[in-house]
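ZP: hey, is the calcium ion complex queued? I don't see it on the tracker
AM: it wasn't, my bad. submitting now with these inputs:
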Amino acid sequence: MAQMLAERDSGVRVMRQWLDELQSNITSELAGYIEHDRTAFQDVVTEIVKQEVRGVTELLANNQESHHPRLDSGNHTCLPDRPADCLGYRRQGFITSGVFNIYPVSCCEPVSVWCDMTTGGGGWVVVFARVPQVEQENFARPWNDYKNGFGNPYREFWIGNDILHLMTDNVPSILRVDAENFAGIRKFGEWRSFRVANETDLYNLTIGNYWPSSSLGDDLARNNRKVFTTVDRDNDDDSGNCAEKRTGGGWWYTSCSDCNPTSVMANTDNYLTSATWKSWNKNDPKFTSLRWMQLKIRPKDSQSRARMCIGQ
Ligand SMILES: [Ca+2]
């Protein structure tokens, strides 16, 4: 690889030398024939030559880029710039929220997520989002859609239960919920224990260590040790299917749930057609409609999990 790069650098140098000579020849030819306005002609020619040099340099640079080794799962190169989560990017100095490619599964399988880089120290992977928009994302989806994930990380989004499992199984994680009601008031809750089991265990949820300073009440206490239910996979404690009863969204229902994050969203202040949170007011619990919501996770120990792929 080093030899290839050296050869290409040498190629760039030869090309530049040739173009410099070309510029010199053209300039002296023009100087001999055109006495008037010579400077203007020189400027034009110089600019043309500069553009040619720039184009050739970029072409060669892109060509080099295309020869970077492609990664595969068995033959990795050390790439500390491929973080497994948003905290890894935060540790690299990224302080503006946006969509990033994270590598929670392997060096070769990026997952595009929204990274919240500002809230509570930043470094959060937004795993689920509800956003008011003209046409809401469809959350009334079957098991496999929730397994694999769906939506748009810029707007409404479900990261996928398999990835949730891989990100939280061996990494003690914090769950944070940020929510906004139709009055524009935002509240948050934190649970310092969050883990999702694998598909064989029906994505059994471990949720706990509710942080008492949270402004949202603990609507997730009832979901602890509950498994996932979708319209086509009824695993809940209810005699019916809670996904069907709650407008189709998948969740870790009991019978059924104190919150309803995956509801249809009609973008009106109506708890029957909105995502809801029951203990919006801790001392006066009643279903409260939400117009915006994010669930986000971060490693509990605040350690970056920048993925180091070591090999060749
Ligand atoms: Ca049931």
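AM: back. Residues 2-65 form one domain.
ZP: great, adding it to the tracker
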